[in-house]
Amino acid sequence: MWFTLLTAVALLEAAQAMPGEAPRPVTPRDMLSADLAQSLLRKLEAIERRQRSGRPGKAETVLVTEGELNSYLNLGLGEKTPQGVSDIEVRLERDRLAARAMVDLDQVKGKVRSSGPLNPFSLLSGSVPLEVRGRFTNEDGFGTIDVEEVRLGPVNLPLSVLEQMVASATRSAENPEGFDLRSPFRLPYAVKRIRLQPGRALLDL
C-alpha cells in the first residue's frame, strides 16, 4: 500500500524544511540508509500494534520523513517491490506527491494492454524512468490520488496506462484486480489522516 501511495506512488535534507518552504533538490542514493529504513519499519510496527490492541488511546501524530520513506521503499521492501521496478524516489510536497522510479519495460510490457504504432512500449525498451506527479487528498480515513502528470522517459504517458501498471503490480489473492488509482482507498493501519508537507508526512492516529 505504501508503494502504491507514493509510487503510484516515494529526501532526508528536504525533510528538514519547515512548512511553507520549497523542497530542495535531492539525490536519493546519497541519503538512503538501513537505519532510516528500520526507523520507518519500527514506526509502522508500533502503529500496527496500536491498531491490533483494540485500545487506540489518545490521538497521536507520527512523523515520517522522506529519508525514512525512500530508504524503506528501496531497502526495506525486499521481494515486495514490484518486479521490474527499482531506484524509487518520492518527494513530498504540500498536499502533493512526486514519484520517480526506473521501470524495466521488458518485464512490464506484457502486463499493459496497449497497442498501435505510437504505443510508448513499442518505442522504448530497457530501463526507463517513470515519473508521476499528483495531488493527494484524504479525510476520515480515506484518501484519493488525482494524477496530474505521467512521463515514461521522454514520453507523456496516458493515465490509463499507468492505471494498468499499478493494478498489475498490486494484484494479490485478497485483491485480484489490483489497486484502482481512480477509487478512494482506506488509509493503511487505520490512520485517520495523512498531512503532506515539504519533505515529510504527518500521520494522525
Structure description:
With 205 residues, the protein is an alpha+beta fold. The protein has one domain (2-204). 29% of the residues lie in helices and 30% in strands. It is built from seven helices and nine strands. The strands form two sheets. Strands 2, 3, 4, 5, 6 and 7 form a six-stranded antiparallel beta sheet that branches. Strands 1-9-8 form a three-stranded antiparallel beta sheet. The longest helix has 20 residues, at 34-53. The protein is globular and about 55 Å long. The two termini are 17 Å apart.
Q: Which consecutive residue ranges, at least 5 long each, have pLDDT under 50?
A: 1-28
| Overall pLDDT confidence | 78
What's the SSE pattern? Answer: HHHEHEEHHEEEHEEE
Structural class: alpha+beta
- For this entry, what is the oligomeric state of its chains? single chain
Helix content: 25-40%
Task: Note the main sheet.
Answer: 6 strands, antiparallel
Q: Total number of helical segments?
A: 7
Taken as a percent bin, the fraction of beta residues is 25-35%
Domain count, please report it.
1
Total beta strands: 9
Radius of gyration: 17 Å
Shape: globular
Distance between the termini: 17 Å
